[in-house]
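For practice. Any example?
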Amino acid sequence: MRNSHVQTLAGAYVFSSFPDRQSVPQLTSSIVEVSLADGDRLVYHDDCPIDWQPGDRIAILLHGLSGSYISPYMIRTARQFVRKNVRAVRVDWRGSGAGMALARYPYHSGRAADLQAVIDNLNSLYPTSPLGVVGYSMGGNILLKMLGESISPITSKQAVTRAVAVCPPIDLTVTIEFLRHGLARWYDHYFAKACIRDVRRRQLVCPEAVIPDGWFQRPPQTLREFDDSFTAPVCGFDSAADYYLKSSAKQFLPGIEQPTLIIAAQDDPVVPFTPYHDAQLSSTTKLLGPRYGGHVGFVTTKGASWLDRHVVDWVTRDY
């Protein structure tokens, strides 16, 4: 399908890429809490295959903005990993999903330390198991930032054997500007409303959640307004512009040493492809930029198999 919006919507609602759904394993997760440096906690959902043994592979899955462990792409990919005897770990970023009541502060596109905490937790539990990490959209930006920035602990990065970032917004400033024009404005308003909804839910389940005084009196209409009025002041940035500058992964791409695959469609209606035109990729990073695919779509007539196949194959590849 060559319509980017159809691709995006199809990718969001296709649950299984296997023609024979009876062959797809059901997920039976256990929930694990991870403590963060500032006292907050997040959770991940651990789906362990029946025949998995310590030393076998683990795949960490990271959702995008306003997503969670139950996002269709998270469920779909986890099932495929479990089918290949890979332990699948679906992370709920702090303040989201099943861990919504456990965090005073929200997640954002620069929370590389939160990912490090998850990696360190799994590496301590299963030190002989190779860790692959797959980040979708915002989760992909966080993943690339952690792998490339010099302040990330060496131990955290060394534990990662392979990584995949799917449609990551590597330049947040360019992405936010892109969302101001044409049909992209629909996605801007959609995500802004989703973020406001998440803040309201957090306020209900976590009375200690940090929310600016009077913030709900004039809810933001766009992501830029949301980040200026909420993300920046709550998370210690001077402004939305400061947040975008410090959190964009593009500046950290040359420092990535792990085998990393970036998948980004040139017709993505949410995240523009233009930042890749002058991006400096490390020698270990491969960019796969098909002409069509939408945002986390890449759906074929047989389901979402194109994206899922590339993700699973990259993480499970040996060399």
